[in-house]
Amino acid sequence: MSSDEQPAAPRRGEAVVLAGLRATLAKMECALSSLAEAIVWTDGEGTVQWCNRAFDELAGRPHIQVLGKCVRDFFVLRQAGKPVPQEENPLFGARACGGLCCDIETPNGIVLVEIQSRKLQLTAREDILIFVIRDVTQEQLALELQRSLREQAAAQERAEELNRQLFHADRLKAIGQLASGVAHEVNNPLTYIIGNLDHLAAVTDAFRADPNQGLPADLEEVIEETRHGAERISRIVRDLKVFSRSEQDQDDRSIDVRDTLDVALTLLGNEIHHRATLKRDYRSTPSVRCSESRLAQVFVNLLANAAQALSEGHSDEDEIRVCTRSDDQRRAIIEIHDTGSGIDPRDVPRAFEPFFTTKPVGEGTGLGLSICHGLVVGMGGTIEIESDVGSGTCVRVTLPGSVDSPAARSQTGRRLKDTAVGRLLVVDDDPAVARSIVRMLRAHEVVVVNSGHGALEKFTSDRGFDVVFCDLMMPDLTGMAVYERVCELYPGLAERFVFITGGAFTASAKRFVRTVPNLCLDKPLDLASVRDVIQRFVSSSARNRKQSAG
Amino acid sequence: MGRIVTFDEVVSAEDVPVVVANQRGLIDRVNQAFIDAFGWSQSEVAEQPLTMLIPSQFHDAHNLGFSRFLATERATLLGQALELTIVCADGRELAAEHFIVAKKIDDDWCFAAVIRAP
């Protein structure tokens, strides 16, 4: 630099300007140095003219040893372990544009960085290159962690779905195994129901032929026995429904474990009956909160195991004892004892392992107890086995008590007398079901229509019903569609709908039953429940009429 | 030569090259050892910016660092031996050890540096 290029000493005004410029430069220096990103600018050859503190740290050298050096001397850029080719390397100024993600080796180890670079032409003779280098190692680790967590969650979801499928498959398998026993349980009452009905038909014929001969003395007994048989079938079907519920319908609710044990015992009645004497020892037990279907699956598996541990034909010698009680922590304890040959103590610890079985090849999958274990643990409970070779086995299930009040056994057989006469509409596509309801409710004025469209047509001219018993699943127009239309057209009438169903087997019907505020009654209808419903609606109508009149 | 550490010791040193500058970044004076070592005359450097002694690739860093020191009064390079480069009167750039010190005199900073070429 020659002396004639040097500026003259600044005058006072220039000194003020200089001081202002210095203040601005100072702010820039401080601001850029405070950033976490490493910033460096170089001349066109890559010689460092300035850099911030973050760059010094990345380079692992004091500031003064970074200045004036070539930026390429500090780092080797690598991608997938290989040096980045010169034509893609932003540190080679001629190609300095855009961004690049790569590893750089620093004195502190390998760091994953994103390098943004820009080439600026300040004057015709002067280019500068600016690099902003951001350490994205932590960011990348966070992303990888996030991805790993997502993958774990997906794997967990897949595992849970597999478990659900496994549970369901186990239940279907059990239903298959139970089918012959259940058929037997149904066929027995069917035998005497059909026999009794034949007998009643003969009695009716004889009465028509000679009304003076009077009715046989056992008529009431025959009718009561027939009803009892039908109720037995109804109970078996209801229990099968509880057991066979799909995995999508596993809502937790407060359950009396004794009711669920009875469901399992009904389904396995035939299996147990031929092998052992069944003893129930049901003591006060807290309610538990879980899926009734899953709990039934556990009990069916355990009771089937207990039955299979006993040989056929010795039912008077062998025993299956089912006990329930609570412990001092308000947990429900369920024990299933059998007097079978017991389990070898060496096998007990492995009993809940998947695919572990002591049964002969082809007779057991070894999944039953493992599935029970999974289900019980899923309910927050425990399952354990105590066994003595030669004297039998006890499987103990412990479940946490729910916060609900102590379980009260379900009540059946309640009879109510009709006290008020109502006007009812029955909407059911099965004429036999409709006729039976008419007979059942003969104390009331009952109108019947046999289709959803028929119901809507009826409502155009006649809506004076205290209750509308509407079948849910009808081929022309479902009960749900009828209800939806009535909600739009006659909201007052919609409140008087009571749905009756032999089983909500479509997804939309299941959802509807869960969400609709109206009552849903299961077929076969329980007369006491139906009468109870009618009385409530009729009383409510009477009150409304009275208030309107007042 | 004894150990030169303080500002006063630097500005009074005669047997090592010394340059003294003001807080505007202009050179006040250089000693004879400096003139002998780097070829500049007193008249060539007096009242000229320090950047005339600094290679151009260090100008940005000097301007920013000098400005930051004046604004913050926090030094990063003062009081330590620094391996830097100096521009000689004939245009050569020589690696030289710089030892820079500063002192505030009547509200103005004064800077002095001992510059030893090998």
Polypeptide structure, described:
- The complex is a heterodimer of chains A (550) and B (118).
- Chain A folds into three domains: 14-135, PAS domain (Beta-Lactamase, 2-Layer Sandwich), CATH 3.30.450; 160-400, Heat Shock Protein 90 (2-Layer Sandwich); 423-544, 3-Layer(aba) Sandwich (Rossmann fold), CATH 3.40.50.
- Chain A has 15 helices and 19 strands.
- Chain A has helices at 12-33, 53-59, 63-66, 137-209, 219-244, 257-267, 269-273, 292-308, 368-378, 431-440, 452-461, 479-489, 491-494, 507-515, 527-549, and strands spanning 38-43, 48-51, 77-79, 82-83, 98-106, 109-121, 127-135, 253-255, 277-282, 288-290, 319-326, 331-338, 382-388, 392-400, 423-427, 445-449, 467-471, 497-501, 520-522.
- Chain A is elongated, with a radius of gyration of 41 Å.
- The termini of chain A are far apart.
- With 118 residues, chain B is an alpha+beta fold.
- Chain B has one domain: PAS domain (Beta-Lactamase), CATH 3.30.450.
- Chain B has helices spanning 7-12, 32-38, 42-45, 59-72, and strands at residues 18-22, 27-30, 81-87, 93-105, 108-116.
- In chain B, a hairpin with a 5-residue loop joins β3 and β4.
- Chain B starts with 6 loop residues before the first helix and ends with a strand.
- The model of chain B has no long low-confidence stretch (mean pLDDT 92).
- The chains are: A alpha/beta (550), B alpha+beta (118).
